[in-house]
Specification:
CATH topology of the domain at 349-454: Immunoglobulin-like
Structural class: alpha+beta
Helix content: 40-55%
Radius of gyration: 32 Å
Number of strands: 16
Strand content: 15-25%
CATH superfamily of the domain at 349-454: Immunoglobulins
Shape: elongated
Length: 456
């Protein structure tokens, strides 16, 4: 029987330190401080960042957004996509190697595994041995810490949608809703499974980015590269040996670059789609070069053109900042500025106008035509506000009901508005009118269109 698929072999990444490793851990700390810390920050008398799906309000520090502000979510998604294109065009899979949640949590889980079970060689020896009390104890402790971290991650995730202090109180009282329990365990299970077990398989087989990244690469993209011209032919030698006399390159064939790779590839075989651009191989290779007394940079971030044409660092960077990158940067900058300007000029309330379908156009005492509308006034500020309603569009058109509306902070209110016009103000039919809504207590003005019906 011939198997068409190679069986999966567990990867035991070796610990490494260096420039890129420090950056990677810096991003781990930064991203997790933001993720775990934001729900606990307060802004006034509320949670600073809260996506309240029940009341359909999104609180982001001083901003209160409604579903009608969906355009801003679209802008954020466009900015994220363009940022991904820009970073990939400049230096490959920077997102994957330094900020992707899969990479970040895998790093944390590997650190826990190292602290409990030891480094790479110790873990490999222990896994090869039969079960013992020491092995069982260490495995149990490791999984206990993994599960604890995963559940705390799920709890924090739910804390972005339910006030986290209330959620904590519900947890202590064992009164969490079924949906809160579900998402806590679902997100926790995903973290535990992806970072603890699947690891590189997510990057290699599940993530679509690895498949289409090559469409954003070119020969001036910075990628982790092995200098084959300098390194080959590779071979072991003593520190005092002269590689030229042995007809050897700088690579000592120690395979440490393979051992530190979180996806288990050999960078000496060239760029592969499994490479997440973390730079671990460059860090460990530099330590080997230092020990051998050779120049650093056998494995480094550079471009294909720089390698083939032996460019200096300055020449390489001049080509990295090519028209494609500059265009991405310009478009991204314009969109970011437009978003910021739009947010700064945003009117802090929303109004929806709906004709009251239960009341037809009618003639009221005084010989006037009356239409009834329902206005939803949404206060996007964190203080009580009053709004004055007026109407224009036809001669003699007036608001016959109370024109002053008070809406509590971050709340919305439906109000019935009666609009009247003289019977002979216009021909029978539908006529466009405008509701003018002005904020009395703070600057703000909105105009909403509707239709005024005059019966035959």
């Amino acid at each position: 029987m011939v198997s068409l698929y190679a069986s999966h072999e567990k990867i035991y990444p070796r610990s490494v330190s260096g420039f890129f490793s420090n950056w990677r851990w810096g991003m781990v700390v930064l991203t997790q401080l933001v993720f775990y810390g934001l729900p606990w920050l307060e802004w006034g008398q509320r949670q600073a960042v809260l996506f309240d799906l029940g009341s359909r309000r999104f609180y982001i520090f001083g901003l209160v957004l409604y579903p009608q502000d969906f355009i801003y979510l679209t802008g954020i998604l466009v900015i994220s996509a363009l940022s991904l294109f820009l970073f990939t065009a400049v230096a490959g899979r920077l997102w994957c190697g330094y900020a992707c949640p899969q990479t970040v949590y895998t790093e944390i889980f590997l650190w826990i595994e190292k602290k409990v079970e030891g480094d790479r060689s110790a873990r490999m020896r222990r896994d090869a041995k039969p079960m013992s009390a020491d092995k069982l104890t260490r495995k149990a402790l490791k999984h206990f810490l993994w599960i604890s971290l995963a559940l705390w991650t799920g709890f924090t995730f739910v804390g972005y949608f339910t006030p986290i202090k209330d959620l904590g109180l519900e947890f202590l009282q064992m009164s969490m809703s079924s949906w809160e329990v579900f998402w806590t365990f679902f997100y926790g299970f995903a973290t535990y499974g992806n970072a603890g077990f699947m690891r590189e398989q997510v990057c290699k087989h599940m993530c679509p980015y690895a498949r289409f990244q090559s469409a954003m690469f070119d020969k001036d993209t910075l990628i982790v590269t092995y200098d084959a011209e300098r390194g080959e032919p590779r071979g072991a030698r003593s520190r005092k040996a002269d590689p030229a006399s042995l007809n050897l390159g700088a690579c000592v064939d120690c395979s440490l670059c393979v051992q530190v790779c979180p996806t288990g590839i050999d960078i000496r075989k060239g760029l592969q789609y499994e490479c997440i651009g973390c730079g671990a191989c460059a860090d460990v290779c530099d330590t080997v070069m230092d020990k051998m007394g050779y120049a650093r940079g056998l494995v480094k971030y550079t471009t294909e053109n720089a390698m083939s044409q032996h460019w200096s660092r300055a020449q390489t960077w001049r080509h990295v900042l090519r028209p494609r990158v500059l265009i991405y940067t310009a478009i991204l900058g314009v969109i970011v500025i437009a978003m910021l300007v739009s947010l700064s000029l945003r009117v802090p309330f929303k109004v929806d106008v709906v004709r009251d379908r239960g009341v037809m156009a009618r003639i009221v005492p005084g010989g006037k035509i009356e239409n009834v509308y329902r206005l939803q006034v949404m206060n996007a500020t964190e203080s009580n506000q009053r709004y004055k309603i007026a109407v224009t569009g036809l001669p003699g058109l007036v608001v016959a009901s109370d024109s002053l509306v008070m809406v509590e902070s971050t709340q919305s209110r439906w109000v019935a508005v009666r609009v009247q016009a003289p019977f002979d103000t216009a021909a029978p039919g539908s006529h466009t009118i405008q509701f003018q809504i002005d904020s009395v207590d703070s600057p703000g003005h909105l105009t909403e269109k509707s239709a005024f019906l005059i019966p035959r």
